[in-house]
Structure prediction request, 128 residues.
Amino acid sequence: MLKFLSKVRIEFNALDPRTAACMEFLAQCNARKAKESNPACQVQVKRRTDDQPPQITVTFVNGVEEKFDATATPAQTIRNMILEKGQYLETEQMFREAGERWPVIIPEEELNQPFAGIKPKKAEEKKQ
Prediction:
């Protein structure tokens, strides 16, 4: 997960009962496997003393910053969102390195063409 990030900032009040997602996410960030995937990723923890809700802010390697309300979003959901966006970034980078345009635009007529590996449905099968 950290391999897609350059910075993680976790903010919470330790006395706030809504910090579960922050604590779980911090544990995931501190896991050996996560740290090994990107040792350069900065993980910052800010312990607050006010009533601000717990918040997790991540900065992707391309500089895009995203904030998550940790009271409403479970740590696993945040992790999955990061992995999904990270896979998108990897795909984008792969296309750019190959000299291809990004995003890939597929003409409408090509979307409707039959694919060689798929047999078209027979009329009888379509009725069912």
The radius of gyration is 21 Å.
